[in-house]
Amino acid sequence: MSDHNTEYLDANNAEKGQNRHLERVITPGGHPADFSQPAIPPQHRKYGNPVPLGLTSFGCGFFLASAYTLYARGVHTPNVMVPYTLWVVGNVPRKYIFVTFGVITAYTETDGTLSPQFNQAIGLYLMAWMMVTILFILGSLRSSGAVLATLSFTALAFLTLGIYQFNGSNSARIAGGRFLLLKMQTAWWGAMSGFWTRDTTFTWIKIDPIDMSPKNN
């Protein structure tokens, strides 16, 4: 330890600004002393997007509801589509829409029979959720074309199917089934626009959701 170039300097003395050359300061073990305090590097994390899964499930359920409403494959039971129409709505994107629509259920008597008031009650129920969907539409005007179209066709489907439940109009039933088909297509459009990314598939496989959010200049 006779080397006159060897000096020991702890962190406290270094902070006090003693007149020594830091490049000559070494630790007792013979290593260069380093009193720097580098900042923690930023962590860039990518969060999962639940919207594609919700829209995919939403569209699939409404495809079944549309098929039952349009009497596909000879299915003519008029109320088969009601549980699907009401239950699958719990898969709308945006978590507040998720929770709101997720509480919808259907009701029948314990013996399985339908009272004369059942269709009227279902019609009122569909009209109520049509109004709720309109509120969600107003809150999605600056989101994307896919989401806005999905909610719009959902509201129209509720409206026409509610009319069908009120008076048994065959035209309203057909219109409701077609709106359900359109809603299924726009839901899958929005779902795949969020799922088909450069992280999951080829770059040329891409769908534009028509982003309508305000851009910062």
Automatic annotation (TrEMBL):
Its main location: membrane. The keyword Membrane applies. It is a multi-pass membrane protein. It is found in: Membrane. It holds the Pfam family Gpr1_Fun34_YaaH. Keywords: Membrane, Transmembrane, Transmembrane helix. This is GPR1/FUN34/yaaH family-domain-containing protein.
